[in-house]
Amino acid sequence: MNPSSVHLVDHPLVQHKLTLMRRQEASTNSFRRLLNEISMLMAYEVTRDMPMQDIEVQTPLETMQAKVIDGKKLVLVSILRAGTGILDGMLSVVPGARVGHIGLYRDPKTLTAVEYYFKMPGGMEERDCIVVDPMLATGNSAVAAVERLKELNPKSIKFVCLLTCPEGVKTFSEAHPDVPIYTAAVDRELNDHGYILPGLGDAGDRIFGTK
Ligand code: URA
């Protein structure tokens, strides 16, 4: 099978905001706000081919058939804890979406993903899933999250991150060639501690101000 497709969201607004987020001096407040704004813009890209349905609406002048997204069928799956940063922005533009959570932490020695929480809405076989995590670094958490999600047999899965690197793309796409990746940038490399270079540091710490 071909490797996962990588959709680079290179819109100037996204790239500008990403640059502001990378800066060491960006405050927790502005980092979080920028991530929120980028997530809304990424939501626009990732939902581009979402199925729509016609409903009848009454305008002030007449009745017509008009299109709506079936947001209730969509599940945004947040990989805890940094996924929350993307989830909030996406929910503000797709408020009807359901939300699932996968709790994974990175074992600091092995850099492998360890699951501690998993909660999804019912009827997953009928749902399209968008998995969100700001950093696709080693790819281990993303691979484990999608593996777990596939056990529930959802209709489709897409993966959205803010940043990734060649190593993360390779690991993820070898494990899940059927899952497209949406990202704002593919950075140079992964370092020995599992951080993306040049990157933006620890996304969770920067979102929640925990460093
Ligand atoms: N997770 C982060 O938050 N940052 C990285 O660079 C890699 C993984």
What does this structure look like?
The protein is an alpha/beta fold and about 210 residues long. It has one domain: Rossmann fold (3-Layer(aba) Sandwich). Helices cover about 30% and strands about 30% of the residues. It contains 6 helices and 14 strands. It has helices at about 10-20, 30-45, 85-95, 140-150, 165-175, 205-210; strands at about 5-10, 50-60, 65-70, 75-80, 100-105, 115-120, 130, 135, 155-160, 165, 180-185, 185, 190, 195. The strands form 4 sheets. A 7-stranded mixed β-sheet has the order 1-11-9-7-4-5-6, sandwiched between helices. α1 runs antiparallel to α2 and α2 (about 30-45) crosses α3 (about 85-95). The longest helix is centred in the N-terminal third of the chain and has 19 residues, at about 30-45. It is globular and about 60 Å long. The structure holds uracil. Uracil binds near residues 137, 195 and 203.
